[in-house]
From TrEMBL:
Pfam families: TetR_C_14 (PF17754), TetR_N (PF00440). It comes from the Bacteria. Residues 46-65 bind DNA. This is TetR family transcriptional regulator. The keyword Ubl conjugation does not apply. The lineage of its organism: Bacteria, Bacillati, Actinomycetota, Actinomycetes, Cryptosporangiales. Residues 23-83 form the HTH tetR-type domain. Transmembrane segments: none annotated. Keywords: DNA-binding, Transcription, Transcription regulation.
């Protein structure tokens, strides 16, 4: 048994180290892309500059991202993937809207940036046409994936069920966007989470 354990450890450790290195490189490129775009504007940022700022090769950048837009929005991709994983782990008997809320609540410490100034700056950056187009594709894919998870949890596959799952996923994402916009734009909205809860409560009345 001890020999088997040692053998497995010897095989798994390099794999784990490689994955951590990949994750670290991906994060470094994402953070460099965001930092440069906020400092200089997206039009003045190149993939070469991002790689240099992350102290990585330009080939490494190409291994992870197809464009500077993908590098900037990678935080969204990672968070959405985490959310899908959390949603899959919710009890099958839990109603869909509650499952969406509970899965998001389990990730709020990583999902929502408490820095209003940074969120405001990022929101302005995200209005760039090329980022808007990429965001639309990313969130559209997530909406479809989330609807698929809701359907898989319920075991229902009729056309009406597919439409209902898609509507709930889209409504939930819209609620997140509205709450974030209120937090950024309204001077009397000081805290994000109570605003998000209020928006989702209002939307959820149609689904619970």
């Amino acid at each position: 048994m001890a020999g088997t354990r040692a053998k497995l450890t010897g095989v798994d450790a390099p794999e784990g180290l490689r994955e951590r290195k990949k994750a670290a490189a991906r994060l470094a490129l994402h953070e460099a892309a965001v930092r440069l775009a906020l400092e200089h504007g997206l039009d003045h940022v190149t993939t070469e500059a991002i790689a240099d700022a992350a102290d990585l090769s330009r080939r490494t950048f190409s291994n992870y991202f197809a464009s500077k837009e993908d590098a900037i929005l990678d935080g969204d991709v990672v968070r959405l993937q985490d959310w899908l994983a959390a949603l899959r782990d919710r009890p099958p008997s839990e109603p869909p809207w509650r499952a969406l809320r509970a899965s998001l609540n389990s990730l709020t410490d990583r999902w929502l940036d408490p820095d209003l100034a940074r969120v405001t700056a990022m929101r302005a950056l995200r209005q760039h046409p090329s980022l808007l187009a990429r965001q639309s594709a990313i969130y559209g894919a997530f909406e479809r994936d989330a609807a698929g998870v809701l359907l898989a949890r319920s075991g229902a596959h009729a056309p009406d069920d597919r439409r209902a799952a898609r509507v709930q996923a889209a409504a939930f994402l819209s609620g997140l966007r509205v709450a974030m916009n209120l937090w950024v734009e309204e001077p009397d909205v000081h805290h994000l989470m109570p605003t998000l809860d209020q928006v989702l409560d209002q939307l959820g009345r149609g689904f619970e």
